[in-house]
Amino acid sequence: MTIKVLAFAGSPRRNGNSETLLDWILASMAEDPEVSIQKVPLTEANINICRGCNACEKLNKCVQRDGMDVYHDKIIEADCIILSSPIYCMGIAALPKALIDRAQVFRSRKYVLKLPVIPPERKGKRLGVFLASAGQTWSYVFDAAVPSVKCFYHVIDIKNEDISYLMINGVDEKGAIERHPTAKADATKLGKTVIAELKKRLVT
User: Fold this and answer.
1) Long-range CB contacts (within 8 A, 24+) of 176-183
2) Could you read off the pLDDT of 40-78 as tens digits, one per residue?
3) Burial of 174 per CB tally in 10 Å (0-12, 13-18, 19+)
4) Predicted confidence (pLDDT) per residue in 74-107, tens digit
5) Pairing relation of β-strands 80-88 and 91-92?
6) Distance from CA of residue 90 to its chain's centroid?
7) Closest CA to 32 of 196, 183, 166
8) Per-residue pLDDT averaged across 30-38, rounded?
9) Exposure of 124 in the CB half-sphere (CA atoms within 13 A)
10) Secondary structure of the chain as H, E, C letters
11) CA angle 175, 148, 3 (to 5 degrees)
């Protein structure tokens, strides 16, 4: 059994705090030989913004030809989809928001065309993970990002209860997360927990 993990690094700043958090969880997952990981920096993914044309409601695909041609199928095929993002101006950063908006094609397939997004036998067997970092220490700094994340996972048939979150605030400058007292341990633990849960789901 191979567990497919697809991970999107959403920051425009490579190797910053949110991507470091992502790398920690991926390193934990990679310790299992049955796990196959693809990490995608969205800075290199060539995913354009959604044009809002609604053509996908008739065509069952986007009219744009860009990086989403590749990642559309990979999102469907993955057992676990991880999205990481810094928080900018109290919300999710632009690159992961573009990815989320382009998931409109899955929304059209599911609710307008009444077609399956994934095969019925895979429903309830996939997991999502959202990782985020923020410079502010406000308790509500992640509140605006979470609904967008839930929407993304919902349209690709991952339920709210199947999404895990690790969101670290108070880490502003690059590398600050390295000094956080629990972030690395929490990411390592979450990676192992997610893989263990996927193994249980995929054998049934």
Assistant:
1) 176/17, 177/17, 177/20, 177/21, 177/133, 178/20, 183/21, 183/24
2) 999 999 999 999 999 999 999 999 999 999 999 999 999
3) middle
4) 999 999 999 999 999 999 999 999 999 999 999 9
5) antiparallel
6) 18
7) 196
8) 97
9) 6
10) CCEEEEEEECCCCCCCHHHHHHHHHHHHHHCCCCEEEEEEEHHHCCCCCCCCCCCHHHHCCCCCCCCHHHHHHHHHHCCEEEEEEEEECCEECHHHHHHHHHCHHHHHHHHHCCCCCCCHHHCCCCEEEEEEECCCCCCCCCCCHHHHHHHHHHHCCCCHHHEEEEEECCCCCCCHHHHCCCHHHHHHHHHHHHHHHHHHHHCC
11) 70
Model pTM score: 0.96
| Amino acid at position 174, single letter | K
Structure tokens given for 87: 């928080």
Structure tokens at 103: 């998931």
